[in-house]
Amino acid sequence: MLKNTSIVIVLLASVSLSACTWVRLSEEAKNVRVIEQSEAATCKKIATTTANLMGKILGMDRRTEKVQAELETLASNSAADLGGNAIAPASDVEDGKQTFTVYTCP
Q1: Are strands 44-52 and 56-57 parallel, antiparallel or unpaired?
Q2: Which residues contact 7 (CB under 8 A, 6 or more apart)?
């Protein structure tokens, strides 16, 4: 009985944790847009940044949409620190990691 209760507690904890947002958008990053590389023709590339977070919690994969959104938030925060106002994915998400190009756009 104790083993089943432990399993249920672990499952409930992982579901709750997967719903949490761990990454907060900084005030400066609120003006950073996510664009496609094809939209960057009139923009100036200023840097690349790599966003990294946990893709799994307690051995379970996190929702793809949530991981992508948090990676974009991390990259936006970084872009704001670098003086950019746009980011574009430069790689696919792999193991909770993604590279973005940081731009200044008109």
Answers
A1: unpaired
A2: none
Here the tokens at position 26 are 């900084």
Task: Check: CB of residue 27 under 8 Å from CB of residue 78.
Answer: no
Instruction: Supply the pTM of this predicted model.
Output: 0.76
Q: Which domains does the chain have, with CATH numbers?
A: 2-104 (3.30.110.70)
pLDDT for 28-85, tens place per residue? 999 999 999 999 999 999 999 999 997 666 566 678 888 999 999 999 999 999 999 9
